[in-house]
Q: What sequence folds into this?
C-alpha cells in the first residue's frame, strides 16, 4: 500500500495516531534523522505499526507509509514569523539581530529565553527536514553565544542575564538539541556556554525572602537539574533537586495548587514538573522519578479543575489571575495530558484544538473510554459547582493571605465565572500585559472581576515590606473562606478586617439550579455604604436593560439578569478601561460589556441577583 493510498484513509484515529506518535513518550533522544526518514527505536516502531494495523485492519501497513505518505516536508529558508510574549516578529534564523529593541520587556525576555525557537521546533518537527531544523537551531545558538561572549552584564538588556531568563534559555537549548540530535549535547562551544550560564544561575538564585519569593526559584532549580543530568554534572543536579523539592513544599498547597492565584500559572507549573518527570525518566533518575510522580499527579488533578469542554468539544480553561507571557495558554493546556501519558495513562479525551506542547506525544481518545478530570477537589481557595449545562468557578485569596506580593494574584476574592454548554458567559477580565497601567491595571484590580465592592474598595490590600503581622491581623482580619456544598452551592466569607470602617463581613452564596444561578450577598456592619457589583460578559455577548432586568444574548443563547429594583444598573462597553478582556498575553483588543449595579444602602443588607439562561 503506497503513500497515496494512506492519504485516502478516512479513519481519523489512524491519522491522529500517526501525527502524534513521532516521538516516543519516554526518551527525548529516541528520534533522529537519517536521509530525511524518521525512525523510532525498533521496539517502539514495532509497537506503533502493530497498533496502527489493529486500528485500521490493514495488515500490509508498512513504516514507509508513514514517512512517504503522511508526512510531507516543506521547504524552509530560515525565515518565519515567531511569537515572543505578546508580539509577533519576523526573524531570519541565519541573521538574528540580538540587539533589537522591544516596547514590552516581556517580549525582550521571551526573545532572550529562546521560547519562540522551542515552540517552533516542536510545532515543525514533522513538517521541516530535521537536519535543516537542527542546523538553523545550532546557528542561532552559536550567534547568541558569539554576540554576548565579550559583553558585560551592564552593557546588555537586563533580561539577558535575569536568572529566570537564563534558566529558561539553558533548558530550551538542551531540549531543542536533545529532540533534534542528541549528539549535539556534546558540542563543545554550546556546552561551555551552558555551563557558564548554569554557574550564573547558581550564583544568582531568585530568593527575596519568604514574603516576596515566587515561582522563579523553582524554575532556577529546573534549569540546574536539566543541565546537571543531561551533561552529567552532579553538582548542578543535586542543587536543582534541592531547590525543586524545597520550593514545592513552599509554593504548592494541598492537594496540588500553586499558591499564586493564577489558573494559567497553575498549568505552567504543571508543565515544568512534566518536563522534569520526562527528563528524569529519560536519564533513568529513578530516585527523582519516585519523588516527582505523586506530586505531578496532584498538580495534574488541580490543573484539570479549571478545564471544561467548549461548544465544539475541545478543551478550554477558566482564566484567573495573571496570564503568563512564557507560553500562550492554549499551547500548554495539554501539559496535564502529557503528564498522564508519561505516567502510563493512555486515555486522553480532550485533545487541544491547536498545536502545542502536547503535539510531541501520541494523544488520542481510546474508543469506549471517556477521560474526565476531577472537576473539583476540596481546597482552601478554589470552588467549582456544575450540572448538566452550567459550570460556575469561584475563588477567594486565602493560603498566604494577605501577602499577595510573591505571586500573580488579582484582587478577585469572591468573584465567579459562568459557562453554559461550553460557552463562556460571565468571565474574568484576564491580563493583557504586566505594564500596570491602563487596561492592565484595571484588569488586575477589583473592578476587573465579578465581585462586591464596598465604598470603592475590595477586601484585599497591596502588600508592603514594612507591614507587621500584628498590623495585618488587625487591618485585614481572618483569612477568607470558601466551601462547596453538594455541587449546588459555593459559600464564601470575607471582608472581616478593619480596612473598611463599620464593615463586619460579607457572606456570598452562589446557588446553581438547572439553568439558573442565584447570587446572595449578605453584608454585615452598620451605617450607610456604597455597594457596587460588576459582572463582565464575554465579548460574544451583548446586553440591554429594562428597569431592573438586563437581557443578554450572543445571537443563539439568551439570558436575563434580575437585580434589586432599588439600585441603579449601568451598561459599560466600548473603549472604557473596565471593558478590556484578554485570554492571552498581549491581547487587549477584545472588549466586553460590563454590567455595573450600584446602590447606597444601610447595613446590614442582603443583595439578591438572579441569572437565568434560555436557549
A:
Amino acid at each position: 500500500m503506497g503513500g497515496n493510498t494512506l492519504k485516502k484513509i478516512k479513519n481519523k484515529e489512524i491519522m491522529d495516531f500517526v501525527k502524534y506518535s513521532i516521538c516516543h513518550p519516554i526518551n527525548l533522544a529516541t528520534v533522529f534523522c537519517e536521509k530525511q526518514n524518521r525512525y523510532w527505536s525498533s521496539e517502539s516502531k514495532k509497537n506503533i505499526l502493530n497498533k496502527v494495523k489493529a486500528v485500521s485492519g490493514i495488515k500490509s501497513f508498512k513504516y514507509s507509509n508513514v514517512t512517504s505518505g503522511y508526512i510531507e516536508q516543506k521547504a524552509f529558508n530560515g525565515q518565519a514569523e515567531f511569537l515572543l510574549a505578546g508580539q509577533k516578529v519576523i526573524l531570519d534564523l541565519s541573521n538574528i539581530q540580538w540587539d533589537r529593541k522591544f516596547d514590552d520587556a516581556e517580549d525582550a525576555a521571551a526573545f532572550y529565553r529562546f521560547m519562540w525557537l522551542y515552540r517552533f521546533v516542536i510545532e515543525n518537527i514533522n513538517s521541516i527536514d530535521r537536519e535543516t531544523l537542527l542546523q538553523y537551531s545550532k546557528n542561532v545558538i552559536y550567534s547568541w553565544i558569539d554576540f554576548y561572549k565579550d559583553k558585560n552584564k551592564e552593557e546588555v538588556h537586563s533580561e539577558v542575564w535575569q536568572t529566570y531568563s537564563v534558566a529558561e534559555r539553558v533548558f530550551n537549548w538542551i531540549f531543542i538539541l536533545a529532540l533534534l540530535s542528541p549528539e549535539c549535547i556534546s558540542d563543545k562551544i554550546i556546552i561551555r556556554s551552558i555551563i557558564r550560564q548554569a554557574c550564573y544561575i547558581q550564583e544568582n538564585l531568585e530568593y527575596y525572602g519568604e514574603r516576596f519569593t515566587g515561582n522563579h526559584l523553582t524554575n532556577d532549580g529546573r534549569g540546574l537539574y536539566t543541565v546537571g543530568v543531561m551533561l552529567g554534572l552532579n553538582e548542578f543536579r543535586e542543587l536543582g533537586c534541592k531547590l525543586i523539592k524545597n520550593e514545592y513544599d513552599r509554593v504548592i498547597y494541598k492537594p496540588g495548587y500553586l499558591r499564586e492565584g493564577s489558573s494559567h500559572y497553575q498549568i505552567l507549573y504543571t508543565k515544568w514538573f512534566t518536563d522534569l518527570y520526562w527528563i528524569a525518566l529519560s536519564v533513568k533518575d529513578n530516585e527523582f522519578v519516585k519523588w516527582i510522580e505523586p506530586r505531578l499527579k496532584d498538580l495534574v488533578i488541580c490543573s484539570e479543575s479549571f478545564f471544561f469542554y467548549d461548544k465544539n468539544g475541545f478543551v478550554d480553561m477558566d482564566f484567573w489571575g495573571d496570564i503568563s507571557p512564557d507560553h500562550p495558554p492554549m499551547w500548554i493546556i495539554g501539559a496535564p495530558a502529557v503528564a498522564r501519558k508519561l505516567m502510563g495513562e493512555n486515555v486522553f479525551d480532550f485533545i487541544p484544538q491547536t498545536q502545542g506542547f502536547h503535539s510531541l506525544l501520541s494523544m488520542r481518545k481510546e474508543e469506549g473510554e471517556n477521560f474526565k478530570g476531577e472537576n473539583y477537589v476540596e481546597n482552601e481557595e478554589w470552588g467549582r459547582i456544575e450540572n448538566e449545562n452550567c459550570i460556575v468557578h469561584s475563588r477567594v485569596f486565602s493560603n498566604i493571605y494577605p501577602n499577595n506580593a510573591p505571586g500573580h494574584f488579582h484582587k478577585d476574592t469572591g468573584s465567579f465565572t459562568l459557562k453554559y454548554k461550553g460557552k463562556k458567559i460571565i468571565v474574568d477580565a484576564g491580563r493583557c500585559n504586566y505594564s500596570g497601567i491602563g487596561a492592565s491595571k484595571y484588569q488586575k484590580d477589583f473592578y476587573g472581576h465579578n465581585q462586591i465592592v464596598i465604598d470603592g474598595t475590595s477586601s484585599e490590600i497591596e502588600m508592603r515590606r514594612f507591614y507587621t503581622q500584628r498590623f495585618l491581623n488587625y487591618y485585614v482580619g481572618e483569612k477568607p473562606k470558601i466551601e462547596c456544598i453538594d455541587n449546588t452551592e459555593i459559600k464564601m466569607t470575607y471582608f472581616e478586617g478593619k480596612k473598611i470602617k463599620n464593615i463586619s463581613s460579607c457572606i456570598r452564596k452562589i446557588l446553581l439550579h438547572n439553568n439558573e444561578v442565584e447570587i446572595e450577598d449578605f453584608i454585615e456592619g452598620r451605617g450607610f455604604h456604597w455597594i457596587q457589583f460588576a459582572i463582565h460578559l464575554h465579548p460574544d455577548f451583548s446586553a440591554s436593560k429594562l428597569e431592573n432586568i438586563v437581557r443578554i444574548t450572543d445571537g443563539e443563547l439568551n439570558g436575563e439578569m434580575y437585580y434589586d429594583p432599588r439600585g441603579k444598573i449601568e451598561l459599560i462597553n466600548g473603549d472604557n478601561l473596565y471593558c478590556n478582556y484578554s485570554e492571552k498575553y498581549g491581547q487587549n483588543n477584545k472588549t466586553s460589556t460590563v454590567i455595573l449595579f450600584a446602590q447606597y444602602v444601610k447595613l446590614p443588607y442582603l443583595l439578591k441577583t438572579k441569572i437565568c439562561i434560555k436557549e
